[in-house]
């Protein structure tokens, strides 16, 4: 009973930190998130994507909207929420936050099945506050559903009851459709778990469901490969194989700068360079600096994916596991190795944490096992309690630091692209005025797509206009026009304002101007010429004193918005 109460409390706390301020943090949408949202909204309103050429059912055949190659299932997950609630940040991310909480529960169930209830509780606590899982659960990216469904498949495959094992099949199918990055490892992962389950189960009547699960995985892989053949822009081209052109280029370059000798071509060839490259990527993926301190550009929080103290627990857990249960230790070693396959076999040479999403849950389980083994060393009950309190205090300090970083520092960093959301609010406030606004930016399509989302302009009545804009590459909606840098502005006598992206490096000399400033340093993100709405207010030299309430820019009245986010210097 006490374990149930503890688990309920953990799930409650995990829900709080995944739902708190979800309507404001993260402060913007970008990348694949935006693609899923805009496409799902269009499908909800019209039955097809924004171009009018892609119905949702095509995702079941691994066919994607034009110029987009994201995963298949997230469109369906987001569709009802973006359909009912429009551009509500909270509801768009709500289903992913819920799945993030379910991952905490699964971490308990899997760890309990592999070890014991006490270790399961520790794993649930670590998963509830893990930086990577918290961060991803508060976004609409595909890694959380993929992690949830893969862990669900593993849990049911490890089940000792024949009728329960079959439940792994629907979760396996959902996992395969959840994320392109994990498609590569699902079949070998399932084979590994099936092999381990077969060799540790005393029940011999589980052979048939394990065979069915394996055949399901094989069928999904074959079906995916078959559907990808002949598709223009297929993601199969992202695989890093020995035939990759960069391998031959590296071989040629290395041979050119090597003195001729009998073994040069034996030691420097496509096979050795390829293996060396894979080894380098593997070491980089397991780098302590990467995992526990820095993260990467995708996870840019000045923080690692796990806590520093986890490094100690993981090492101790792996040592004890190898000593006490070599078979289970080998199983975990192979799980960790398989979890970095998407990164190893992707053309991108730099670490990309989305490709190693499954690495984090397996490391969390090892960390929880390490804590339990350290505490279990002591024979005295009082000493065990004291050790548990010390570890809890240290872990609490790490958690407080992370939560402070996420909720207070992260919202103001520039990578969130909050300035585009601020720009969109400014443009929204000009919609009903008798003036046109031209925006010059290096990426008019991307900024236009974000603008129509932030201003909730993806409506049934506006879809034909948006389709025409995308088709003709004429990104205009109402009196708002998005243009590439250095494009001439038409002069037809109509009153107009001009906004220039700082990345354009373009200015108009001799003109008074104001700015949409970067929150991170007060520098200019956009320069506004011939402003019609903010000039009469008392503007700051740079934004300061930003509060959580100020992050809801769509709800800010004109005066408050201008005096908070528009600068004059």
Characteristics of this structure?
single chain, 569 residues, mainly alpha, 7 strands
Describe the structure.
The N and C termini lie far apart (about 65 Å). Among the domains are: about 140-230; about 245-285, no CATH class; about 415-565, no CATH class. About 60% of the residues lie in helices and about 5% in strands. It has about 575 residues and is mainly α. The model has no long low-confidence stretch (mean pLDDT about 90). Helix 7 packs parallel to helix 10 (about 180-200), helix 16 (about 310-325) packs across helix 19 and helix 17 packs antiparallel against helix 19 (about 360-375). The longest helix has 29 residues, at about 380-410. The radius of gyration is 26 Å and the shape is globular. About 40% of the residues are buried. It has a 7-stranded mixed sheet.
Summarize the structure.
By secondary structure, the protein is mainly alpha-helical. The chain contains 24 helices and 7 strands. A hairpin with a 2-residue loop joins strand 2 and strand 3.
Helix and strand topology:
Layout: H1 2-19, H2 31-46, H3 73-85, H4 89-114, H5 117-129, H6 131-137, H7 143-157, H8 162-165, H9 168-176, H10 180-200, H11 207-228, H12 245-256, H13 264-267, H14 270-285, H15 288-294, H16 308-324, H17 326-339, H18 341-344, H19 359-377, H20 381-409, H21 418-430, E1 436-440, H22 444-454, H23 463-472, E2 476-477, E3 480-483, E4 496-501, E5 513-517, E6 524-529, H24 558-565, E7 566-567
Helix pairs in contact: 1-4, 1-5, 2-3, 3-4, 4-5, 4-6, 4-7, 5-19, 7-9, 7-10, 9-11, 10-11, 10-17, 16-17, 16-19, 17-19, 19-20, 21-22
């Amino acid at each position: 009973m006490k374990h149930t109460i503890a688990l309920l409390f953990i799930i409650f706390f995990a829900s709080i930190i995944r739902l708190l301020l979800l309507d404001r943090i993260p402060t913007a949408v970008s990348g694949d998130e935006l693609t899923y949202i805009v496409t799902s909204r269009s499908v909800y309103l019209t039955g097809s994507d924004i171009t009018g050429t892609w119905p949702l059912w095509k995702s079941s055949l691994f066919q994607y909207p034009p110029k987009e190659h994201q995963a298949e299932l997230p469109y369906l997950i987001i569709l009802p929420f973006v359909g009912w609630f429009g551009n509500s940040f909270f509801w768009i991310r709500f289903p992913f936050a819920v799945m993030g909480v379910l991952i905490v529960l699964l971490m308990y169930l899997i760890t309990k099945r592999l070890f014991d209830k006490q270790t399961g509780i520790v794993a649930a606590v670590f998963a509830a506050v893990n930086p990577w899982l918290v961060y991803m659960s508060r976004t609409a990216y595909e890694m959380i559903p993929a992690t949830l469904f893969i862990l669900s498949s593993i849990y049911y495959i490890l089940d000792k009851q024949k009728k329960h094992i079959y439940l792994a099949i629907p979760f396996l199918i959902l996992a395969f459709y959840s994320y392109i990055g994990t498609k590569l490892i699902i079949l070998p992962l399932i084979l590994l778990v099936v092999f381990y389950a077969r060799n540790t189960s005393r029940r011999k009547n589980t052979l048939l469901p394990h065979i069915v699960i394996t055949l399901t995985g094989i069928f999904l892989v074959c079906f995916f490969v078959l559907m990808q053949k002949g598709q223009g822009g297929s993601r199969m081209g992202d695989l890093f194989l020995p035939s990759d052109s960069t391998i031959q280029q590296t071989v040629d370059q290395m041979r050119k700068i090597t003195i001729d000798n009998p073994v040069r071509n034996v030691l420097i060839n496509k096979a050795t360079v390829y293996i060396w490259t894979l080894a380098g990527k593997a070491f980089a993926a397991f780098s302590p600096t990467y995992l526990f301190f820095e993260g990467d550009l995708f996870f840019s929080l000045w923080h690692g994916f796990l806590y520093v103290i986890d490094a100690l627990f993981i090492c101790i857990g792996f040592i004890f596991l190898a000593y006490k249960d070599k078979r289970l230790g080998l199983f975990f070693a192979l799980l960790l190795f398989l979890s970095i396959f998407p990164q190893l076999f992707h053309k991108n040479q730099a670490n990309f944490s989305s490709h190693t999403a499954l690495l984090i849950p397996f490391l969390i389980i090892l960390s929880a096992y390490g804590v339990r083994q350290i505490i279990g060393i002591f024979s005295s009950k009082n000493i065990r309690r004291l050790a548990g309190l010390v570890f809890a205090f240290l872990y609490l300090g790490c958690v407080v630091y992370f939560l402070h970083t996420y909720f207070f520092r992260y919202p103001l960093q520039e990578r969130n692209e909050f300035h585009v959301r601020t720009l969109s609010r400014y443009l929204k406030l000009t919609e009903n005025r008798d003036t046109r606004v031209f925006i010059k930016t290096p990426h008019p399509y991307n900024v236009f797509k974000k603008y129509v989302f932030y201003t909730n302009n993806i409506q049934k009545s506006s879809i034909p206009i948006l389709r025409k804009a995308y088709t003709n590459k004429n990104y205009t909606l109402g009196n708002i026009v998005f243009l590439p840098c250095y494009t001439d502005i038409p002069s037809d006598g109509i009153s107009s304002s001009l906004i220039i992206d700082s990345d354009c490096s373009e200015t108009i000399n001799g003109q008074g101007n104001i700015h949409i400033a970067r929150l991170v340093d007060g520098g200019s993100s956009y320069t506004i010429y011939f402003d019609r709405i903010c000039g009469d207010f008392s503007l700051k030299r740079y934004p300061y004193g930003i509060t959580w309430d100020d992050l809801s820019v769509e709800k800010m009245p004109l005066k408050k918005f201008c005096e908070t986010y528009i600068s004059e210097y």
